[in-house]
Amino acid sequence: MRMINKTLTGVAVVLGMTATTAVAQEFNLAFTPPLESHYGDGGKAFAETMAELSGGAITINLKPAGALGGERDVIEGLQIGTVDLAISSTGPIGNFVPDVYALDFPFLFKGYDQAHAVLDGPIGQGLLDEFQAHDLVGLAWGENGFRNVTNNTHPINTPADLAGLKLRTMENKVHIAAFEAAGAAPTPMSWTEVLTSLAQGTIDGQENPIPVLVANNMWEIQKYVTLTQHVYSPAVVVMSKGRWDGLTEEQQGWFVEAGIAAAAGTRATVAENEANGVALLRENGMDVVENVDKEAFAAAVQPAYEQYAVEMGVADLIKQIQDAQ
Ligand code: EAX
Q1: How far is the CA of 148 from the centre of ligand 1 (A)?
Q2: C-alpha of residue 94 to centroid of ligand 1, in Å
Q3: How far apart, in whole angstroms, are the C-alpha atoms of residue 323 and residue 325?
Q4: Phi, psi at 304, each rounded to 5°
Q5: Distance between CA atoms of 52 and 56, rounded to whole angstroms?
Q6: Is the CB of 50 under 6 A from ligand 1?
Q7: What is the pLDDT of residues 51-75, one digit of tens each?
Q8: pLDDT by residue (tens digit) across 123-161?
Q9: For the structural domain made of 2-323, what CATH number should be given?
């Protein structure tokens, strides 16, 4: 009799586990650009990959256009478990995972290929691993792109043209210091406030990659863009540690694989936007300054390194990134 009980118990446990694995689950995935954007394409790739891997048992609900708040709010939401997943630029993330600040120093990455090689190698994986100590799980490195300056006042041809411009920056101390050193008047704010502030004229300009300009029809509220490419902006695919810990090992593997697919999705759209975006900005009336003296801009923002590389403890990491290119 005892043997039959043991067998029945065993069967019940297996059925129970199977049932747990197959129980339908839903996760939200937040990002600040519109659905039709590089982050939206990443989110769609995540959802499609997860549907396939889980046999439809896990549904990813995309929350575009800042539906769950600005990137800083979303990262805080991931930490407390009100947000499950996000695709976020690294701008505000250094406030939560300090070493990530190293990625946002101006003119650090020489180009897209170099950025991908660093982020897809041991340096990038090492940074992703650090997220777990902060109630976050870094799944993969996606991409926002090289950032450019837009404004409504005048064309920016030299760093001196930045003087006095009220430029919105992300909530990132290095970016604020960089634009202060260059003579601008940086104003940190969440992306969710930027379009309204530009339209109302409370700020003169902002800085973002071409994919963000294209996705938000930036030509409707900004006249001038200068292709400074002053910062390479990664976009991390990140998960709430609390939600991650509730997954089976197999399911965790699915989230990593879906994160990698999302990262690839963002990069593919960034490449497309970089190839076609400048023509689109011009077709829609923007005055585009393409031939930029990057050395002059790099020199103008150099004080940000002196001010923060050592203070933030990322001087060695920055040197590793420079040596790896
Ligand atoms: O992540 O806040 C920003 O300027 C970001 O580049 C944007 O939200 C896309």
Answers
A1: 12
A2: 14
A3: 6
A4: -60, -35
A5: 6
A6: no
A7: 999 999 999 999 999 999 999 999 9
A8: 999 999 999 999 999 999 999 999 999 999 999 999 999
A9: 3.40.190.170
